[in-house]
């Protein structure tokens, strides 16, 4: 860890820590376009979460932030950092290397996030069963959307003032205001302005399916050179369209929706206590879109009693 003392200016000032499939890639690219900010390449170093990346050392991590003005605020976006219990050592490693970093946690309706996560895993070939079976076989689909469980350790370690809650639905309906709010949280040297010309990033339907031939064309230097010299752009685009995902995310059956709602609502009730606003699956979109939310400590009655009363 001596590198942190040798090159502290190359370590990040802030990190977007998740959640997966909650527009973190779009937010990363928006932040990369702002004056006074410098975002990592790659977008997701996954340094503190993944053992293989962590073993590369802090010097490698610092190299992800090279470039940019010396005065720039540096940031990265690794959704693996809020993937408990898959990556259990993330927080202890982060606190040791970055005791004063600022964190941004983006949250999306947990059922929408789960479906998008499932669709992602299907398109990259890691899951080959239907949605209901996947929920049973892959507990991470639920775990990564239990936001209170994921963020509580960070609030304990860094304090609520160092962690900004951002919500997908608010980011969609008020992108300019939310990005300006993020800039104030970071202490950005200039007001942040949303680039409305930038298309949403990492959209599932625009992802390319795994294919050995395409991977060889992309990775092998000889084939890459031939492709660039001999293959017209129109043909390349046509080939991409053959590999592009054409399926749509699956619909959630009413029965599965009820099961997922029952699974997520206790965690959302806890999240609502942390934010001082009652939250549950039924109210999540409306309440997270209507105004910015911040950590308030245990308050509010939560949604679970409301639904229990309504069912009686």
What structural class should be given to the helix and strand makeup? alpha/beta
Indicate the CATH architecture of the largest domain: 3-Layer(aba) Sandwich
Tell me the strand order in the biggest sheet. Answer: 2-3-1-4-5
In whole angstroms, the N-to-C terminal distance is 58 Å
Detailed description of the structure:
- This protein is α/β, with parallel strands linked by helices and 312 residues long.
- It has two domains: 3-204 and 248-311, Rossmann fold; 208-243, no CATH class.
- It contains 17 helices and five strands.
- It has a five-stranded parallel beta sheet, sandwiched between helices.
- Helix 12 (212-219) crosses helix 13 (221-230).
- The radius of gyration is 21 Å and the shape is globular.
- Residues 1-6, 298-302 and 304-312 have low confidence and may be disordered.
Provide a quick synopsis of the model.
The chain has 312 residues and is α/β, with parallel strands linked by helices. It contains 17 helices and 5 strands.
List keywords for this structure.
312 residues; 2 domains; Rossmann fold; 5 strands; single chain
How are the SSEs placed, and which strands pair?
Elements: H1 3-6, E1 14-18, H2 24-32, E2 37-39, H3 51-54, H4 58-63, E3 73-77, H5 90-97, E4 102-107, H6 110-123, H7 131-137, H8 140-143, H9 147-158, E5 163-167, H10 168-173, H11 175-186, H12 212-219, H13 221-230, H14 233-243, H15 254-275, H16 284-290, H17 304-311
Parallel strand pairs: 1-3, 1-4, 2-3, 4-5
Helix pairs in contact: 12-13
């Amino acid at each position: 860890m001596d590198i942190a003392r040798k090159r502290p200016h190359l370590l990040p000032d802030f990190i977007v820590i998740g959640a997966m499939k909650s527009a973190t890639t779009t937010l990363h690219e928006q932040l990369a376009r702002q004056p006074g900010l410098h975002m990592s390449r790659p977008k997701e170093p996954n340094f503190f979460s993944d053992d293989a990346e962590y073993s590369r050392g802090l010097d490698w991590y610092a190299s992800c932030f090279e470039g940019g003005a010396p005065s720039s605020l540096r940031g990265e976006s690794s959704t693996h950092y809020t993937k408990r219990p898959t990556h259990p050592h993330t927080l202890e490693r982060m606190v040791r290397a970055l005791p004063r970093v600022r964190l941004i946690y983006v949250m999306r309706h947990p059922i929408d996030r789960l479906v998008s996560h499932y669709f992602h895993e299907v398109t990259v070939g890691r899951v080959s069963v239907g949605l209901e079976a996947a929920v049973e076989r892959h507990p991470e689909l639920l775990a990564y959307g239990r936001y209170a469980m994921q963020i509580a350790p960070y609030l304990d370690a860094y304090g609520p003032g160092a962690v900004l809650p951002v919500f997908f639905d608010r980011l969609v309906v008020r992108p300019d205001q939310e990005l300006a709010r993020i800039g104030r949280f970071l202490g950005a040297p200039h007001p942040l302005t949303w680039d409305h010309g930038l298309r949403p990033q990492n959209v599932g339907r625009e992802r390319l399916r795994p294919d050995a031939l395409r991977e060889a064309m992309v990775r092998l230097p000889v084939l890459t050179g031939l492709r660039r010299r001999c293959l017209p752009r129109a043909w390349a685009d046509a080939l991409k369209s053959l590999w592009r995902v054409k399926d749509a995310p699956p619909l959630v059956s009413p029965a599965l929706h009820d099961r997922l709602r029952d699974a997520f609502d206790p965690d959302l009730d806890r999240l609502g206590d942390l934010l001082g606003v009652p939250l549950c699956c039924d109210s999540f979109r409306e309440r997270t879109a209507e105004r910015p939310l911040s950590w308030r400590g245990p308050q509010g009655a939560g949604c679970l009693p409301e639904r229990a009363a309504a069912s009686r």
